[in-house]
Predict the structure of PTS fructose transporter subunit IIA.
Amino acid sequence: MKIVELLTEQTIILDVEATSKQAVLSELIEQLNDAGKLNDQGAFMQAILVREEQSTTGIGDGIAIPHAKSAAVKEPAIVFGRSVEGIDYASLDGQPAHLFFMIAATDGANDAHLEALSRLATFLMDEKFRNAVFNAKTKDAVLEAVNAKEAELDGPKEEEQTPETVSRKLVAVTACPTGIAHTFMAAEKLNETAKEMGVFIKVETNGSSGVKNRLTDADIAEADAIIVAADTKVEMARFNGKPVIQVPVGKAIYETEAILNRAINQDAPIYAHDVSKEDAAQTESRSGFYKHLMNGVSNMLPFVVGGGILIALSFFWGIESGNPDSPEYNAFAAMLGTIGGGKAFFLMVPVLAGFIASSIADRPGFAPGMVGGLIAITVTGVEGAAGGSGFLGGLIAGFLAGYVTLFVKKAFTRLPEALEGLKPVLFFPVFSIAITGIAMMLINPPLTKIYTGITAFLEGLGGTNVVLVGIVLGAMMAIDMGGPINKAAYTFGIAMLDAQNFTFIATVMAAGMVPPLGVALATTLFKKRFSKQEREAGKTAYVLGACFITEGVIPFAAADPARIIPASVAGAAVTGGLTMLFDIGLRAPHGGIFVMGLVEGGIGKVLLYALAIVSGAVVTALLAGLLKREAVGVTIESGN
C-alpha cells in the first residue's frame, strides 16, 4: 500500500494555527475527523494522550509523530501539519517541532496498512525528505515528495553490508508500545548509522504486525554486542551471557552514534537472565494477579497517604476536633478531617477496584470497577457495618469488573462496523456496569460479614498472639525490600487502617524503616567491613529509612544478600513484635519519623514507638556488622 493512499490532500495542513502541544494535537485530530477518518474524535484524542504519557513522540530534528491504534479510527490514515515558527512539543532534543505526522491506525489494521505507516517513520530519517516537506508550497508538493521517496526506496537497492566486510557484528531489537512509528524509525536510524560507521548490524523489529527480521540463534552467538531499544517487553532470555545495552527506543533514534560506539567497545554489562523478572510476560497466568493488584494499590496509595496524613493532622487539635458539639472543635481541623476522611479516604476502595479492573480490561474496565468498589463500601446489608466489605470487597469488585468487561468486549466483537464507535461509549459501560453492579449488590452483604468477622478476630488478639502477628508482619516488610511480600504486608496494614484499627499500620511502617536504618548504622559502627562507597551510601540510607523508604537498603542487599537480608529481616521482626506488644496506634499510613508525633497515647507511646524502631535497627546493625567480612573493594551505587 502506498503512503499517499493514507496521506491525502484532505489530511494535510500546510500551516497549523496551534501554538502549543495540546492545541496541535487537537487541530490534527479535527482534520482527521473532518476527512471522515474517525468514529469518535474524543476517544481518539484520549488514545493519543495515553501514548504521549508513555514517552514523548517528539523525536527531535523538528519532527513529531503522535500515533495510536484505536477503535475510534474508522480507517487507517495519516494527517500532516507544519509549523514554520515551531511548537514546544517536549521533544527528545529539547528543540521546537515543525513537522507533525499523526498516524491513526484501527484496532484491526492489516499488515499492508501497518507497513505503510511504518515506512513513513523511516522516511523521516532522511534529511532531504524532511527539507522537501518543510519547504513545500502546496499540498501537491508534499504528496510529490512522499511519492519521490517511495520511488527511491522501491528502486535498485545498494549493495548491502555483509558480516565479512565489516569490523564488528552487532544485533539489535527495537520495540515501542504501539509498534508503529518509533519501532521502525529506531531500526532505520541504527541501520543507516551503522553503515556509515562500517559496522554490520541486524535489527529485529517488534511492530504491530509482528516480529520482523527475527534474530536467529546464530546471529546472537556471532554478535559482539546486543542493543535492546524498547519501551515494552521483548524476549530477553536468548541474550543470556552476551553484552547487552538496554535503552528506551527514543534514544536509539536521537543518540544512535553514541549507543553504537558503546556496542562497538562492548561497553555493556553481561546480561544474566532472571526468569522471575524477564519471563513475566510469558507467565501471565501466574503473574497477572499480582500485576493487576499492584496497579490498583499503586494508584490507591496517593489517596491513602494524602487522606490519612490529613486525618492525622486534624487530631493535633484533639481527637474530637471535628465534632461541632465538642469543646475541642476547630473549624480548620474539621476541614482537614473532611478532606482526608470524608473525601480522599472514601475514594480509596473505589479507586483500588477501578484501577485493578482497568489493568485487566484497559479503559473500559475503569467505570465498572469504580462502581463495584463504591457498592463494596456503601451497600452492606449488615446492621452496624457502616464500612461495607471494605478493602476485601474492593479487591473482589476490581477483579470481577475487569473480567466481566473482558467478557462484554468479546460478546460485542461481531457487531456491524457501523456500530463500532458505540462500543466504548455505550455498550461496554452499560453492560459492564450493570453486570458488575448486580453481582456486587448480591455478594456484598455476605462479604461484609466475612470482613467484619476478620476485623473482629484481629482486634480480639492479645498477648503472645498479637506479638507473633507483629513479628510476621515485620519480617514480611524486610524480606524483599519493597517487593510483593513487602507490599502484601503494607496492603494488609492499609486494610486494617480502613477498618479503624491503627496498630497494624504502625507496625508495618516501623518495621519498614528498620532495614535501611539498621544497615546505615552498621556502616557507621563497622566501618572496616564496608567499602568507602558503601559508607557513603549509608548516609543516604539514614534519610531513606527515616522517611519509611525500605528500598533504601537494596544497594547493600544486592551486593551481599546472604548477610544483609537475614540481618534486615531479624531487625524488622523485632520491631514488629515490640510495636504490637506496646500496642502502638498510628492513623498516618506513611511519613516515617515525620508522623511519629501523631502516635495515639501521648509522649509515652511516642517514646515506646521510637524504642521499637531503634531496637530493630540495632539488631540489624549488629548482625550485618558481625556477619560481613572486611571490605575488599565491593562497589555499589548509592543512587539505586
